[in-house]
Automatic annotation (TrEMBL):
Matching SUPFAM superfamilies: NAD(P)-binding Rossmann-fold domains
Domain NAD-dependent epimerase/dehydratase positions: 6-147
Domain DUF1731 span(s) in chain numbering: 306-355
Protein name per its UniProtKB record: Epimerase
């Protein structure tokens, strides 16, 4: 893809930055960010890309809530708009955080929708992030876009009011009594918020009236690249907890971040593509296999497993949720494969080796030394 104009919201984020790197040499990438230019050397794990590094990129400040002339004129005649903005799910699911997680995604989508409606030459394609976590926690079969199971209406309430919260807790308690503490049904209630969040992501884009712009929601599995989710895993390895998490049988759907960028390009080039797409390699692994491969590549012979109760305690301590580690995410990219898309990174080991090899030495020299020795 060359000489196109691509606008990406959530500009400083892990995926937006990877996309800017992927597209920014041959295309003009406009990154919308809530940060001022002076903040751009912030405390993000990755370094933000700069035009000075040879990329054709422009940063514009936005608040993700109001259409302002300085950035919205970039949407005029753009080839593609990509929304990757939203509060990070790496937080405790308190009521306040839940509201922010939802509103940051809905408002940024509504704002982009409004900006698109104000154009005279609308963008050809609009892509929004959704998540593979939209499907149920299952360990017996993968979910595709046609037959995949998404939580039903029984668990469809996000606790907002005090009464809603009480009702939700009562429902959980009753389900635990009836079906057991380790039942699938109870797990679904535990993991319900992630499902609802993904539903909001998808509804918010498909509700927007933009008749001349194709719309796609990507149900992204765990995107592996430099930074992102791999950093907490490196920390687990370093601290000796490089074994499996929970019982290790939960499925881990993944894709290389470069394949995610290639999927975006593929969607742009195929005018018939619309709606929702699972973004994951067809080769999901179990959590135990994922950790085993990571240990092998980084030269760690052993790693202690982390049982669910320990993870619960640790997650509460560091302010995150165990869902990110314990929920079984098993998706199959049926629609992408049907469209003819071919993944470049099909095997986990190949993907992880490539990522670790290109990770800056100053950050992970420990692992690179190990890798070199393998
Ligand atoms: N990474 C994955 O494996 C993965 C998997 C499934 C789904 N997703 C979804 O894909 C999207 C992008 O993921 P990511 O990993 O790139 O996330 P990320 O690194 O957390 O980036 C998201 C960006 O959104 C912006 N943002 C943060 N809080 C916001 C708020 N309150 N209002 C508006 N914008 C806000 C920030 O950009 P600025 O500060 O520059 O504005 C932030 O850098 C997210 O919706 C995520 O849930 C990611």
């Amino acid at each position: 893809m060359k000489h196109k104009k691509i606008v990406i919201a959530g500009g400083s984020g892990f995926i937006a930055q990877a996309m800017a790197r992927y597209f920014g040499k041959d295309n003009h990438v406009v990154l919308l960010t809530r940060k001022a230019a002076s903040d751009q050397n912030n405390n993000y794990a990755h370094e933000l890309i700069k035009a000075a590094d040879g990329y054709n990129i422009t940063y514009w400040r936005w608040d993700a809530q109001h259409v302002e002339r300085h950035w919205s004129r970039e949407i005029e005649g753009a080839d593609m708009v990509i929304n990757m903005a939203g509060k990070s799910v790496n937080c405790r699911y308190t009521e306040k955080n839940k509201k922010e997680l939802i509103s940051s995604r809905i408002q940024s989508t509504q704002t982009l929708g409004e900006a698109i409606r104000q154009t005279t030459v609308p963008p050809k394609l609009w892509i929004n992030a959704s998540s593979a976590t939209i499907y149920r926690h299952t360990t017996d079969k993968p979910h595709d876009e046609f037959t995949g199971l998404i939580s039903d209406a029984r668990v469809d309430n996000i606790p907002y009011t005090f009464i809603d919260r009480l009702r939700f807790r009562y429902n959980k308690w009753r389900t635990g009594l009836r079906e057991g503490r380790h039942s699938m049904r109870l797990k679904e209630l535990d993991y319900d918020f992630g499902v609802q969040l993904s539903k909001h992501c998808e509804n918010s884009i498909f509700e927007q009236r933009t008749p001349f712009t194709r719309k796609i929601a990507l149900r992204i599995a765990i995107a592996l690249g430099q930074g992102g989710i791999l950093e907490p895993y490196y920390n687990l390895l370093k601290s000796g907890f490089g074994g499996h998490q929970g019982n290790g049988r939960q499925m881990y759907s993944w894709l290389h971040i470069e394949d995610l960028c290639r999927i975006v390009e593929w969607c742009y080039e195929h005018n018939d593509m619309e709606g929702v797409y699972n973004c994951s390699t067809p080769n999901a692994v179990t959590n135990a296999d994922f950790m085993k491969t990571l240990r092998h590549i980084t030269g760690h012979k052993y790693g202690l497993p982390a049982p669910a109760w320990l993870l619960e305690a640790g997650a509460a301590f560091i302010g995150t949720e165990t869902e990110l580690l314990l929920k079984s995410r098993w998706v199959y990219p049926a629609r992408l494969l049907q469209s003819g898309f071919v993944f470049r990174y099909n095997a986990l080991e190949q993907a992880l080796r490539e990522i670790i090899r290109h990770t800056p030495v100053k950050k992970y020299n420990f692992f690179q030394k190990k890798l070199a020795a393998c």
